[in-house]
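G., the chain you wanted modeled:
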Amino acid sequence: MTANVAPIRPAAYTAGARFLHWSMAVLIVLAFVLGLTIDDFPSGWKQAAIEAHKAIGLALILLLAARLAWRLAHRPPPLEPASPLMTAAAHLGHAALYVLMLVAPVIGLIYAIKRGQGLDLGFVSIPPFTAPAPRAETRPIREWHEWAAYALVALAGLHALAALWHHAVKKDGTLRRMLPR
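Predicted structure as tokens:
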């Protein structure tokens, strides 16, 4: 006779780490969708959409700083045993995500500054730092921002697919580590 043994729940990330992870995930998707659709907004709403996009970018930078500080103060739970190649791929993928989570919004803010734009957060407005630079000078910055955003979303999509693969194929509990309790 075999006893029914409940599966061992893998060590989970802290509530703070999960909050920062999912908050950033939602904001990244929101910023990306706004960025893709800004030109489709009615003219009366377009400026508000642009300001929301910039505010989300700033929030992402602040959340990333909080996430890095959290990570320095809290060790992540141990990984499930994996091959050296899988472990290296996971570490490289996470490092690339962190870099892109910083690079995409920073380039966007540089673009906004070079375009002579301020930042209106509703409760506070930051005036432009400089006069607008010519479009020929700012267009490449906008393109770098767009490419970084596409790369971030593509890598985040691969990250999500890897988590689903772990959950559905390997059934190793990796996804449950980041889900709410």
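The radius of gyration is 20 Å.

Shout if anything looks off.
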